[in-house]
Design goal:
single chain; two-stranded antiparallel sheet; 9 strands; about 25% helix
Amino acid sequence: MAKQSVRRSRYAFTLIELLVVIAIIAILIALLLPAVQQARESARRTQCKNNLKQIGLAMHNYHDVYGQFPLNYEATRNPDGNGRGRTSVSWITASLPYIEQAALYQTIDFNTVGTRNALDNPAAQTARAFKLTGFMCPSNPQIALGDFSGNYDGGGWNGNTRSFQAARTDYVGNMGWVFTGWKDCGTDIPQGNAPWVTPDQHYNGQADGLPRVAGVFWWMGTAKISDIVDGTSNTVGVFENHHWNTSKRFPAEVNIAASWFTPIGAIDTMHKPINFAPDDIPGGNGGNDTRCASFSSTHVGGAQCVLADGSVRFLSENISRVVYQGLATRAGGEVIGEF
């Protein structure tokens, strides 16, 4: 008996079914994308934390050799003239041998780096443009290499600042609870007990002349562990500063004072709140002032720092101002507690 052939029907997606499938996939992507982005940011924040951990180790290794934290020395600002012409060096530059950059350190001509022709020094040109990935937060979208400026050529603070190609730093040394040239931001932040100081006021062979409000780094000098009376676990050593040019709404705009190579680019004060946006203050002129953002990051809700004991902490942008001030000073006598 002959077998009868069986015809099988072939089914296909209808247009409605296809649209439903596409809609489901789109919903899944919409649900998963934030999670993926959050995971990536978590990884970047962890890398940022590791950068600060390595910086903390470098600070202590330097201290073991020289008896102080890495030297920040802006020699062109010495008022009596004795420092002019001497080597100007940022604490980051001084740290190079302790962050596996000894070869780069050896290329720098320290005999001329502090003089007016420093910007034209071939060794300085090469060094300052080197991208130190360990001093760049991976969450920061800003350009790594840009036209920055510095006053270590002998006259930047007198209107003679020169722009030059340099790599940025996202981490700066803590100068403490003080006003400096950074105070003129048109803000309504109360000055409190934060004095207005200048680079020329406080070099006396030590870190500075105002220990109760000072931090770990200064224009000319840095602290020893014995100077940190409040305790190394209660004092910020280095903190994130993404050098915002305008406000937290535009973090991609980096200001011109962001070079790791210069003493002035490697330090800042802690008086302004974390992630402070001068454009948000009525009448503020921070949008046109490159000096008005300090402790800042593109991490959600705050920024990271390494304390003077080498431990890394994330500080909320809503941190108590009392605690924040206590963390800024090395000998202020504040009672901090948990933070």
